[in-house]
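Field: COMPLEX_INPUT
Field: COMPONENT_COUNT = four
Field: RESIDUE_TOTAL = 642
Field: MODE = joint
Values follow.
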Amino acid sequence: MDDRPKATRNGRAAAKAKEVEAELIAVVVSVNDGEPAVLTIGQGDCLPSGPFALEHRSLQSGLRAWVEQQTGHPLGYIEQLYTFADRDRADGRQQRVISISYLALTRKEHATGASACAWRSWYDYFPWEDHRLGTPKLIADVLKPRLLAWAAAVEEAAIARERRRRAAIAFAFEDRPWNEELALQRYELLYEAGLVAEATRDERSIASDSTAGTTMVADHRRILATGLARLRSKIKYRPVVFELMPPVFTLLQLQRTVEALAGRLINKPNFRRLIEQQELVEETGETSLDTGGRPAKLYQFRHAVLDETAVAGTKLPLARG
Amino acid sequence: MDDRPKATRNGRAAAKAKEVEAELIAVVVSVNDGEPAVLTIGQGDCLPSGPFALEHRSLQSGLRAWVEQQTGHPLGYIEQLYTFADRDRADGRQQRVISISYLALTRKEHATGASACAWRSWYDYFPWEDHRLGTPKLIADVLKPRLLAWAAAVEEAAIARERRRRAAIAFAFEDRPWNEELALQRYELLYEAGLVAEATRDERSIASDSTAGTTMVADHRRILATGLARLRSKIKYRPVVFELMPPVFTLLQLQRTVEALAGRLINKPNFRRLIEQQELVEETGETSLDTGGRPAKLYQFRHAVLDETAVAGTKLPLARG
DNA sequence: CCCCTTATAGTCGAATGGATTATAAACGGG
DNA sequence: CCCGTTTATAATCCATTCGACTATAAGGGG
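Field: COMPLEX_OUTPUT
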């Protein structure tokens, strides 16, 4: 008796074609001078990607190889995002494609040679996500009225109400608080409402007159939104920001980086207190003079904390620790 | 010019075989009378699984079909866990297998027909994870000495120290606090140290005399550990427990379910306060008499909270909300 | 009726977290 | 050289949260 799952032997689909093509796709992020950027190829409308092939030792190493080949950029920290399969392939082939997406954090610095790649700001693709200078006018002027119109366009009152509620939660209408982590829900809502060009393109329906943000190929923008949402969530409970920082930095530079990711401003004293009480950084003893005012102390990441995983914040009232 | 990623056209691997087999695999969880269970097939050594085939509309629907076919159990809530590919297939075929794993939460109640499946307790597979009745003796009696021996078995002092530190963090040695979310790290540590049978089996090395927990096929136990860790983490910030509860329940039943998942006890008054102030439940007006003591109020889940996603707990000191 | 069991409410103090104010140290212009 | 500007850094205040504990209520069984 072999030790493989029974399903692979007697399942009802065992006789049919089961082969699929597996594609690796990367959301490579860096932050430069307070501007979050993503690594693109083509006309800035495509994420680095390539098929998973026999010569790759693992999914991760396959991804690294493709990104390095297409952009000249070696990757450090990477983490799996999501695996998609329900993509509509326009060509008639009876061949499924599975996309395994990854989030990579890096620094721009590496020279990229002559590759046809470019760093583009996140907020080119999601202009409604940057709230650092206040709520973007785009939301009140364009998105809100069109989302409400989309809700009103349906017959049933219950569905219309549900649409309004979803829009209100995602985009902070009706005095709700803005939640930066809902980036993916916002993109999907705009897609449903036909407010991003991908939706009308996929549907082959009437082209929308005004659509928001720069378009990408296939579902790449959705994958980018997935990475954005994951990163905004993760910076809150894991010290991943430091993957985006130079070896030595000031606390304000660190704050600006987090603000760039979160798309909103942070209270300065409280941010410093948070960083210090978690003992995430240590002083180098040096100071930086090019701040314009009083010199700022330079810090470096305490790599030791990466292993002190034990400090995962509980949320349950556990008994007698 | 077509709109597909360039990589699929001119990559260096384009000429080689790129087809892979995609396998769907499910960790189906339920909790019955305070005992967490996982749905298995075979001799309790195999998770429900099957290949992703053309007739499946999506990964999720493919998974649902396989689980229902193999176990007769319809699935409700499911979420993607992780996609693996670096498995060693013993057979010599030059064919990669990608495993896409899912976590499903359900209730045992559904009649499962005559399928060859069984509910097994989590803690059969991970006996070191149940701390409800105190720290299992297994840890101090077996795992700790063998982990320390494994650390001592290496030449370099730095590596030995690193091994000791990893073991101490994962298993709460040296007065560290126990962290129930590290279930996956613990399994992987035991695998590295050769303390689970899968490790010695995969290595085809000397069989270990004493190994811990019930073995599973291939890497199924690792996938189960992944699901366990994910669920233990998720119950802290999303109301997923209710997927495991009957429509109506007492607060103590709810607490026992969370305790079963977390593998540790919870402070009763504080748990009640937490549930109530989050407004997760509402009274039905009924009471339950079969508690043994004073009748307990019956509650039901407020499904409205599922949409109030806005309450994602922040951890950054954001400015002026 | 007493006692045991479980349910439910309330209290107390430490710690956390958001907002604000105060002080220190550089620079540049008059 | 003083003075205003800019930025860094420290300290304070207060509301809320959270863990641990105590007290009271309401059923069943001997």
